[in-house]
Amino acid sequence: MNRRELLKRAGLLGLSGAGLRSLAIEPEGVVVSVPKKRALRFAHLTDIHIEPELRAAEGLAACLHHLQSQKDAPSFIFSGGDSVFDSLKATKDRVELQWRLWHEVWKKENSLPVEYCIGNHDCWGMGEKSDPLYGKKYALEKMHLDKTYRSWDKAGWHFIVLDSIHPKQDGSWYTIRLDDEQFAWLENDLTVTPADRPVMIISHAPILSAAVLAVDKQVKDEEGYVLGGGNMHTDAARIIGLFDRHPNVRLCLSGHIHLNEQVTYNGVTYISNGAVSGNWWNGKHFRTDNGYALVNLYVDGSFDNEYFTYGWNDTAR
Fold first, then answer.
1. 139 and 14 inside one domain
2. How many distinct structural domains can be found in the chain?
3. Does residue 202 contact residue 254 with C-beta atoms inside 8 Å?
4. How does pLDDT run across 263-317, given as a tens digit for each residue?
5. Is residue 155 part of a domain?
6. For 241, how many CA atoms within 13 A lie in the half-sphere containing its CB?
7. H/E stretch holding 26
8. Could you tell me what percentage of the chain is helix, strand and coil, using 3-state DSSP and rounding each to the nearest 5?
9. Smallest Cα–Cα separation from 45: which of 100, 108, 94, 113?
10. Per-residue pLDDT tens for 95-108?
11. Closest to 149 measured CA to CA, from 171, 102, 117, 109
């Protein structure tokens, strides 16, 4: 009996990539479970939408307390975009107020390093385009970043942060895609990354999502589902085609849709990790409660992602 047949009979075939255990075959043909070696553990918090109303600051503090009290603590936090409730249609005073509140809560309630990803609501779209803070510049200043996309190596993994948010052709905000310059950068970045180094990508909006079909109700009779440009990447086919040439791309994390889902396609797993704000601080969004994720990355290139709710009660206002 070969190894594949043993795993099949044991009901374990397909589980070895899930990130929990490695499987080994003893000489006697017995399947044993061997603990995987973890490379890194981090938290993924997205769509926080901080604002002075709706007890949003209290909710963020509660979330930070919950994740930092975890027995198996993460080493850092990925903030996945939409940090503030809205900059797209807000005055500069309102934007400044939200960012000031954001930094106050994080300084007071968090002790972990934070890596940022930009979201659509982080872009300032109400001011004059000649203003030095217009568009993404405001968010970059508040996030202490030079660029909206970047990459680095850590613990044997390669990390890529993408910028999903771009102005439409008419100059208004926004559509979800990579511009040509960023796509060329991503293509080169994956090319120069060693093929045996696993890759994790984080973007604000999903590169690939099934949940948006289930909740948006964008069905037009015989045309079927007709999606707009504001839910997931409109250039998904182009990006997935690039991933097909780089099988070391393992995991893509996102937020934006405030739903918790997992889709695996062509060897890449796409996970949307709900929202810290739930339904924009108004309870659940469909069946996804306010929450965050803890992600384990393993030396062998596998991973696991667990979504946690933090018991937020938004009714006591």
1. no
2. 2
3. yes
4. 999 999 999 999 999 999 999 999 999 999 999 999 999 999 999 999 987 644 4
5. yes
6. 5
7. none
8. 25, 25, 50
9. 113
10. 999 999 999 999 99
11. 117
Higher-confidence position of 8 and 77: 77
Contacts of 288 (CB under 8 A, 6+ apart): 258, 259, 260, 274, 275, 278
Predicted TM-score (pTM) of the model is: 0.89
Boundaries of domain holding 20: 1-35
**Residue 26 in tokens:** 């003893």
**CB distance 105 to 116 below 8 Å:** no
Neighbouring C-alpha atoms within 13 Å toward the C-beta of 164: 33
**Long-range pairs of 8-12 with CB within 8 A, sequence gap ≥ 24:** none
Query: How far apart (Å, rounded) are the C-alpha atoms in residues 317 and 308?
Result: 23
Q: Which of 58, 48, 44, 124 is nearest to 83 (CA)?
A: 48
Q: Is residue 314 part of a domain?
A: no
User: Taking the CB of residue 126, how many other CB atoms lie within 10 A of it?
Assistant: 16
In our burial notation (b when 16+ CB lie closer than 10 A, e otherwise), range 138-170 reads: bbbebbebeebbbbeeeebbbbbbbbbbbbeee
